[in-house]
Amino acid sequence: MASHTPVTKTERSSDPPHSSGSGARDRIGRTEVLAVGSGYANAHGASAVRVLQRRLASLGYSPGPIDGRYGPLTEAAVMDFQATHGLVVDGLDGPLTMAALASVRWRGRGLNGLPRHSC
Q1: What is the CATH number of the domain that holds 78?
Q2: CA-CA distance, 74 to 85, in Å (whole number)?
Q3: Residues of the domain holding 76
Q4: In a designed cystine with 35, which of 7, 17, 78, 100 is the match (CB 3.0 to 4.6 A)?
Q5: How far is CA 20 from CA 13, 23, 30, 42, in A?
Q6: Overall number of domains in the chain
Q7: Dihedral sign computed on CA atoms, order 107, 114, 101, 18
Q8: Is residue 23 part of a domain?
């Protein structure tokens, strides 16, 4: 069985780091990239993954249980978010995805029952 190792910031090609001192890093308070496997080393998961899962859920995406473990359901929710917001769809929560998550505001559900977001 293949193990999933979290991707580090330097391995992330589709989410380049910000060159200025501002951006997702300052608003979110972290610079590491979250990926499938993040949070599994700790029995209680990772707090950064829980924050991501809560944010996705608050925007109408379904990351699965808020358990601090970045598994396939969290990855799918990140990919749905990325697709909706015109980001590279890779399932990784890097600087561009973090910034987009921080800037999106919940606007309820549209006529078709799907989430509506405002950038």
Answers
A1: 1.10.101.10
A2: 17
A3: 29-103
A4: 7
A5: 18, 8, 15, 32
A6: 1
A7: negative
A8: no
